[in-house]
Amino acid sequence: xxxxxxxxxxxxxxxxxxxxxxxxxxxxxxxxxxxxxxxxxxxxxxxxxxxxxxxxxxxxxxxxxxxxxxxxxxxxxxxxxxxxxxxxxxxxxxxxxxxxxxxxxxxxxxxxxxxxxxxxxxxxxxxxxxxxxxxxxxxxxxxxxxxxxxxxxxxxxxxxxxxxxxxxxxxxxxxxxxxxxxxxxxxxxxxxxxxxxxxxxxxxxxxxxxxxxxxxxxxxxxxxxxxxxxxxxxxxxxxxxxxxxxxxxxxxxxxxxxxxxxxxxxxxxxxxxxxxxxxxxxxxxxxxxxxxxxxxxxxxxxxxxxxxxxxxxxxxxxxxxxxxxxxxxxxxxxxxxxxxxxxxxxxxxxxxxxxxxxxxxxxxxxxxxxxxxxxxx
Length: 377
Known about the structure:
It contains 16 helices and no strands. The chain folds into two domains: 47-62 and 169-377, MetI-like (MetI-like fold), CATH 1.10.3720; 66-163, no CATH class.
């Protein structure tokens, strides 16, 4: 062990008597937990239930003959994530090479189970995301057109997946699609509510404030269920898929929180800038769009990215309206008597996927926050 390592251990783990006692207790305990977990994962657990049920966990009951649509969705999602990450960071070449090798290793690992074609598609989607990250981080033209490209890609994603029917969406695919759609739709509605809460028109201000406070005072599951029940009553002759009704509930609920995020951003803006713009004869629309909104957006973007994680975790509530999200798909697999004894394997896999996605979103949020902070200096 190097001198730097010894110094780090002494400073962080064995600096004081209390630190020494705490380290002597927690380090062996942690080592025992990790050893027990590794022993169960590699020697005791029977992971064949995941291989047999992976399609249900990933895409639900989506038609098998339309799987090319889901692979298109995976490629688009990888590209979108790569573009978003490339806009707020400049990855090192070593990191990209490591991730590319890791993607290849995952492809090699899944090849014996799912075949060479599926493994090649997995590796290709991973490399596509890395390429998008590299291009977005190093090309000024790509950064300029990144937002329109993302919006077009999102529209294409839903158009390609829609033909088999929205009711066939399920598993992790449903959770991701619901999260993306709700995150995009809540943004404009939340901005309008934030401006409405600060409007000089009393009726608009009261209505906006009342809507925000009501939505923040009731649980999400109640809003989703209420929208699901009310829509058929208002339009009995119309057939509205449950996905769209659930999406409406998520959008209406989280828009209130987006409005509060933007209200904090508006309050952080110095009032002198708005007064100066008005003294120059600028219209209210120009003041809000050209001066207020860009600066407020810089303040609230980290919070908005963090809310994506809240929406993704809250997507499990759509089971109440009959949709099969990722968590519900795992519970359906356990409902089969042949798999009832595999509860640990299923829930450990669900935990690993949720943790990976959550950690990735959190990491992207922190990188974006650091990028915006650097740009404001």
